[in-house]
């Protein structure tokens, strides 16, 4: 896997939305949050465009992704937010051109669709990170989250470092064991949505990270079951489970009518006999760690250790 050139202060960031429309009041603060890191910002039209729930038409969003990769003056690309719509532009992307111009590409949630495509079709590492209009501008944005983000995008060549939760947030073991493989994945909904398409996630021999938000326990069960029936969970080397924000029972007044996430994970993932670490501080949560998708990692589930290696 190609590691994109690390960003440095003074570099120019292309700011885009491949997914949902950005609330107008969040645009300027989002740009300023990037500038405070020492970067210049070129904001794409999609950061201010709206086509219903989308940041402009499919053609506009795809054209802007292509343009930002093609433009030699753009050093890195940040997605301003997630939402919905990244899967819709995949057929319109110029993957040959993008492959020839690897850059730091950062975002998460709906951006998972692009992470999978760029990792598999273009062969370069991308970064599962918080985003300018959804986390960067929040008052509770913390040092752990900032440091994890900055280290990922400005030190892309580093190896032999650990992915660690913030203090007081221990990871836990769902199934013991050790594994080594390429780190892949992201949002469960988007990973599942890739099945049966030309952009289907390849999990064979890899370590799969999953997280989600606002999906009740039954839906999490359904999506994990779909991945299992598709053979995607049988092929993995190991599994990392992040934050499951607002993923409780469909009817909070009757939790006894649901299954807890712990039960769902034990019943669906436990029988795989793969190493599984859960409670990783990553996803729709703060503090949150950034992840180098496409890098090779080792995991020791019994000791809750995750290490990025050469």
Automatic annotation (TrEMBL):
CDD domains linked: Peptidase_S66
Domain LD-carboxypeptidase C-terminal: 180-299
Residues annotated as domain LD-carboxypeptidase N-terminal: 13-128
Key words, A-Z: Carboxypeptidase, Hydrolase, Protease, Serine protease
The keyword Metal-binding is assigned to this record: no
One Pfam family this sequence matches: Peptidase_S66C
InterPro entries, sorted: Carboxypeptidase_A_C_sf, Class_I_gatase-like, LdcA_N, Peptidase_S66_N, Peptidase_S66C, S66_fam
Signal peptide (residue range): none
Keyword Hydrolase recorded: yes
PANTHER family registered for this protein in UniProt: MURAMOYLTETRAPEPTIDE CARBOXYPEPTIDASE, MUREIN TETRAPEPTIDE CARBOXYPEPTIDASE
Entry's family note: Belongs to the peptidase S66 family.
Protein name according to UniProt: LD-carboxypeptidase
């Amino acid at each position: 896997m190609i590691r994109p050139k690390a960003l440095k202060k003074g570099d120019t960031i292309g700011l885009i939305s491949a997914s949902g429309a950005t609330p107008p009041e969040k645009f300027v603060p989002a740009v300023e949050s990037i500038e405070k890191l020492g970067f210049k910002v070129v904001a794409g039209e999609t950061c201010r465009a709206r086509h219903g729930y989308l940041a402009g038409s499919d053609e506009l969003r795809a054209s802007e992704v292509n343009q930002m990769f093609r433009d030699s003056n753009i050093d890195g690309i940040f997605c301003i937010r997630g939402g919905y719509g990244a899967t819709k532009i995949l057929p319109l992307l110029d993957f040959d051109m993008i492959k020839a111009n690897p850059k730091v590409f950062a975002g998460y949630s709906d951006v998972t669709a692009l992470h999978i495509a760029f990792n598999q079709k273009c062969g370069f590492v991308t970064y599962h990170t918080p985003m300018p209009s959804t986390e960067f501008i929040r008052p509770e944005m913390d040092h752990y989250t900032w440091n994890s983000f900055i280290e990922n995008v400005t030190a892309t060549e580093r190896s032999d470092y650990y992915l660690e939760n913030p203090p007081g947030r221990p990871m836990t073991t769902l199934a013991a064991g050790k594994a080594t493989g390429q780190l892949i994945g992201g949002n469960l909904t988007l990973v599942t949505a890739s099945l049966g398409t030309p952009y289907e996630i390849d999990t064979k021999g890899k370590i799969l990270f999953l997280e989600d938000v606002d999906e009740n326990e039954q839906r999490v069960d359904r999506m994990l079951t779909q991945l299992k029936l598709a053979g995607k969970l049988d092929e993995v080397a190991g599994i990392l489970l992040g934050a499951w924000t607002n993923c409780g029972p469909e009817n909070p007044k009757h939790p006894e009518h649901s299954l807890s996430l712990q039960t769902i994970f034990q019943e669906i993932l436990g029988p795989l006999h793969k190493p599984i670490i859960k409670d990783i501080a990553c996803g729709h949560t703060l503090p949150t760690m950034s992840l180098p998708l496409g890098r090779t990692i080792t995991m020791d589930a019994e000791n809750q250790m995750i290490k990025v290696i050469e």
